Request: fold
Amino acid sequence: MLNFNLHFPTRICFGRGKIEELGREISRYGNKVLLVYGQGSIKRNGLYEQVLQIFRDNSIAHVEVSGVQANPRISSVRQGAELCKKNDIHLVLAVGGGSTIDCAKIIAAGAGYEGDPWDFFTGRARISHALPVGAVLTLAATGSEMNSNAVISNDETAQKLGTASSALIPRFSILDPEYTFSVPPAQTAAGTIDIMSHVFEQYFSPTPDTFIQDRLAEAMLKTCIHYGPIAMAEPDNYEARANLMWAGSLALNGLLKAGKHTDWATHGIEHEISALYDVTHGLGLAILTPHWMRYVLDSRTAPQLAEYARNVWNLEGEEMALARAGIEKTAEFFKSLNLATSLSAIGVEENRLAEMAVKATSGGALGSFKKLEYQDVLNILQAAYAG
Amino acid sequence: MLNFNLHFPTRICFGRGKIEELGREISRYGNKVLLVYGQGSIKRNGLYEQVLQIFRDNSIAHVEVSGVQANPRISSVRQGAELCKKNDIHLVLAVGGGSTIDCAKIIAAGAGYEGDPWDFFTGRARISHALPVGAVLTLAATGSEMNSNAVISNDETAQKLGTASSALIPRFSILDPEYTFSVPPAQTAAGTIDIMSHVFEQYFSPTPDTFIQDRLAEAMLKTCIHYGPIAMAEPDNYEARANLMWAGSLALNGLLKAGKHTDWATHGIEHEISALYDVTHGLGLAILTPHWMRYVLDSRTAPQLAEYARNVWNLEGEEMALARAGIEKTAEFFKSLNLATSLSAIGVEENRLAEMAVKATSGGALGSFKKLEYQDVLNILQAAYAG
Reply:
């Protein structure tokens, strides 16, 4: 186990009707809010009007950025940061999924920065402070509601890049599983796989003796495998939605990576796909993950992949065969969620795979469980293209 | 799953040599510290001198309360609270195990209270504020380093009572597994069982559909079962000590109880034993737990006890038989750690069992997994007495 520092500053308000605590949480930070939301689903389901009523009841003034996209654009960030500066905003409130929260985070950082917020992604500027961020979550997937990360896309440069700072961690997050009842099956599947992928990226690691972290990771994987199909079949099954929502937050709040080297190669590759094609992140991960697993399997990584097969899928067998069986179980599970299983099926063009592999490895090899150079990434992309 | 609010304000500094961050952590709160420690083991292993050097290097003034006992006494609390008032202390630093941290917490609350700190336990006063508390942990057991709880004994009234307040949660905790290398096998066993008991008290619950919490609980139980015996046999096995230390913090920081009713009957009974006999808490729990499990087993509780047997001990079988097998595995495991297995063996007198049962249920029935009235508690105590 490696040394680590860990701090979870987010106040979690979890459960039915917890929106009633929104006014109190905001009031810890002030009374001028920038409300950030997406494509209007919160207007259709009544949440928008509920939030506005809470603003009125608590004498909270607000301005808005709406239309945040599934892969949030730097243009929305720029617009929000300007509004914060003009209106002397005290808190940026995201109401939506991970994309909306990511966008709100960088708006909050941009509010106190004179330059262009894209600088935070190119390395030209570091985020050392930000306005407080709060979140009302409507999708179980990214874990952004409890962590320091944000991923933003730039259409002009065809880049999708991430950054992280403890200043970005939401001060509070309201997690009401009922808000995810209206998430359609395909998006529920993509969200479930996004959560599983976050766990995989931290579970498969070269760091030895991380027993407790690994058992915690398996707990979250089992939760996704158990409840993902239930939430797809019964969209308003509260317990399924609640377990998935809490798994999403716990999977990427720092708990699983504490004391370990992490991998993140699959995410690195997927970001290049969704930068070019605006693919749903979880769908891209679903296609890539089994191919990544097959590619990294060797005599050195087999023990951990076999342990995964044994502890998560209850399989038995000789180590290498067991590892392979666990990988195929994973692929079967993803397929059972009715998601596409090849990059070709989602419109990715074969002649752009090399370009993605170049960009994915432009900062050096990906991953730590097994280091992946350009040719490795291209091999994985080609296998995922064929499916 | 029930609604919940959750907040982990403690900054965790985990690993070898993390004491080097102590000066920086203290300096967030001021430069006048009350140092609280126990029976002097930190003087023998050099930690005391190391802490004093850090105080000197960071211009931190300090006064001391030493001699805090394994079941910390209200007399130490009173002494510490007085010192805080007299010396305008900014932070109370506990260096030791859970008892020392518990003592430091109530000192910190008492520092801002005009009356007697025992009032916090009798219900005469509520803790709404306290000086900041920091901890350097030297024993993996109670989880006090990351939670709001404190248990204090009062010799005059022969009471051992607990209280909790978010104001008591340590602002930072330094967790260096090497500090636990010198913990002798019997105490290592007691600490491991204390951790397991904290998990049991939250794992066995009448709340349905707490899948993720239950899998997380099993992760922690497996960690204790795997590493407890290793840490006893190889006291300086870093990985065993590290996994146990982190399990101890995670087992009682709020994560496992979030969304559930919890039980705490076994702890309630054990507190009456150690209030009268100054028994090591984990030893008392080791004796009581299998008897509690046997007593609460019925057709309603069998499914959960069977799930425990299946998921933690990898047993199979028909539900009631499986539940019984899991309980006996638990008893065997505790026995394998060379701890006493009956109350008679540790000097408890049979003619005081009724008195303990009366006191344990003086506030009403214990537990939620199965409610225990006076006669139930007495039955468990009698079974545990015989062993």
Notes: Chain B has 15 helices and eight strands.
